Amino acid sequence: MTPTPLCVNLHHTAFLVQDVAEAFDRYERLLGLHGENYGDHAVLRCMHEDYCLVLHQCGSLSPSLEYVAYELRPGLELKEARAELERRGARVTDVQVPGRGAALSVTDPDGNVIVLVERRRPEDPRPPIMIETDSLKGYHPRRLGHVNYLTTDAPRAVQWYTEVLGFRVTDWIGDGAAWLHIDARHHVVAFLDKGLDHIHHVAYELVDWGEMRVALDHIAKHGRYLTWGPLRHGMAQNLASYWRMWEEEVFIELYCDMQVLEPDHEPVTHADTPYSSNTWGTLPPRSYFRFDPKSVRLEREQAHAYLDPLDSSADPLDS
Ligand SMILES: [Fe+2]
Asked: What spacing in Å lies between the alpha carbon of 241 and ligand 1's midpoint?
């Protein structure tokens, strides 16, 4: 029997950062997020939502993804969710999150931390675009859209997210990459088997192609260059562009025009071809799946563009 879904909404991501004030300013400047800096932590948002990003001082730890938080389905209280998660074999711990207080934390098989908070509807039910403001800046994404992890075992991750959290598989590419959903949007999380467990990207939704141009001109003026894109994903259909937030070892994806699922959607296994990744043809440099300083440097130098495709010893990442 298919497990009952526990989550209905991707609420926020949290990152451990070296310096909260610096990171707050950076996410505000590069991504157009806005929020409150409380010193040891900060919260930021795209438009009028609760918030979609938490920054915590990393102290002696390395800057990295801390956790990804989802809202539980409406009416599901923490104590009921805890009992259900434990029935499904998860080890649950109590945590606190900014603005929400008590929450539950579980860890997926790759070691990624998932936080669950009770569902809270926005106080103002109007679409954010209808709400007047005197504080919102010009450029900002519409909303936090999805997270994508590199994994050492995609089927194991899919089994855990479907059986423990009740996520649904949307599509596969081959047997090493899977996309999952909790609502009508094509995916809220994805796993790519690339031989390491690591966050890959956090994706923010833009309104359309025109806004993508504004966003990419904006980040270029701030010294952030695209690693991949703009492109059109075959599977999921979204227009997408990827650039590094190298401070926290994560890519930021800006996207729009993602596939909306039919109510009777059945998972499709797409062929593992360049076309499935990008209908416009160009694949990313291999550094796109790596976070070591050498990969980041060679990517900025666009070393892949100077390779001789007939020279098999010419992979700079291996030299
Ligand atoms: Fe993505």
From this structure: 9
